[in-house]
Amino acid sequence: QVQVVESGGGLVQAGGSLRLSCVSSGPDITVIRSGWYRQDPGKEREFLAEISGGVPIYRDFVKGRFTISRNNAENTTYLEMNTLKPEDSAEYFCQVSGVFRWSGVRRPFAEWGQGTQVTVSS
Question: Are strands 18-25 and 3-7 parallel, antiparallel or unpaired?
Fold first, then answer.
């Protein structure tokens, strides 16, 4: 089974920075794509950024403030968030997709983490 765990959220003042981490683990896992999303209560989950093959893609409203990166050796994807605003407050989620080995067979997976809360005070 593949597990995805986010961390790094917290309370920060407006203008501050946070770095979120997303660690994936599983038997013979190969990650193809990692993405970061966020969700406010009562709203849909929105895409922020993804990275695949070392190539990042961002939503326009986070370009220049957020940076996604990946350390393949540690199976960890990061989201560096700078110049945070109160409207960035949300639960942040990581989704990881790829392949892993289960019962001797390579199988695809796409898993979400449990989320990490980011609160930006004004």
Answer: antiparallel
**Which tens digit of pLDDT belongs to each residue from 17-44?**
999 999 999 999 999 999 999 999 889 9
* Torsional sign, CA 119, 87, 48, 80: negative
Residues 6 or more apart whose Cβ sits within 8 Å of residue 37: 45, 46, 47, 48, 92, 93, 94, 95
Contact of 118 with 92, CB cutoff 8 Å: yes
Interatomic CA distance for residues 12 and 119, integer angstroms = 6
Distance CA 3, CA 94 (A): 11
The answer to whether the CB of 23 falls within 8 A of the CB of 116 is no
Length of the chain: 122
Instruction: Measure the CA–CA gap between 78 and 1, rounded to whole angstroms.
Output: 22
